[in-house]
Amino acid sequence: MSELSTFVMLALATGAAAFIQGTVGIGFALIVAPVMGLLRPDLLPIALLILMLPLNGYVGLRERDAIDWKGVGWVSLGRLPGTLAGLGILVVMSTNGLNQLIGASTILAVLAALFAPVFQPGRRACAAVGVVTGVTETATGVGGPPLALLYQHRPGPVLRSTIALCFLLGELVSLAILALAGQFQLHQWLWALALLPALAAGSVASRFLHHRLDARRLRLGVLSFALLSGIVLLVPR
Question: Given a cut of 60, is residue 185 above it in pLDDT?
């Protein structure tokens, strides 16, 4: 596949994923990480984490009055040890192993999102989710499903804004630790910058439609796509 074709496919995935996350509250990494893993695995997780910074900043600011600040605090507290563990996984794994980890993590997250029972998140649950999210997002770029499980039965504005802020703070921590570990490469930054227009288009579109769409059906569509992508990534190459 040519470089242009790869870019077009990643841009389409980025725009669609930004729209879905801005509407539902999750979905960006579930869509972009498997596509990026198939087309340009060398961009993970740095380019994905960079792209998520402006997206989550925008979503969190848009519905800032609904943020669950206590939940954000406990999730962030658990995030640091998880981030260090995720860095260790990233350092020792090959590209094929990382793809399989992304695939397995995605499938497990989808199954958990579909079948997890209703519960009210407390301090321990928030901290535990912070640890898990730190591991998976630092190693693979995928961290949304555990947070979505935590807030899936809260009102839409609470879910979207709180998850966005948790992501934003956690991504800053992950990127800082990855930078200190020497995991950054220039081409990852350049690809992320090139994909920003697609990200902005999807984000702005979500602003006008997130109150009107059937979030339940859209969420099921995201999870179905993620499940299929995860299965494809598990196939050895």
Answer: yes
